[in-house]
């Protein structure tokens, strides 16, 4: 749990009272490989802090291709945030790629705490600013305008431990290229 507190307080410091209140709604859970945290079409309720393991967030395109939008390795918070905020069915599936141990909490309970504890509200706002605005826009631009090679290089920098934990087709899907293109990029490096 210490790693969790270290991670979240990077966004904003928390009082002891806030930590206690948040800690009271957190439980530990393990997801087996291929088990889903959120299924496409389900209204998501949980946020999961990854203690050990790995999730992917993906959707299935109309042509049947699986498109991976993001990975959630250790110390990441996994959730279908847009669907939770709108209380609507998720357009994504979040699935464990390995046996994954998490700390989970119900989003609605957390949101109630943000109305009671201003420091938690500030933490939540900063989290959204960083992960849903500051990080997201460059990723969207990169996917549209950067080469597969530059996206692969950025992937290796952002996730230095994931290359050996993922299958080639999973990395290729995340990068928006084919596995064959990824093989050529790797051979050229």
TrEMBL record:
Residues 29-113 form the Cyclic nucleotide-binding domain. This is Crp/Fnr family transcriptional regulator. It comes from Chitinophaga eiseniae.
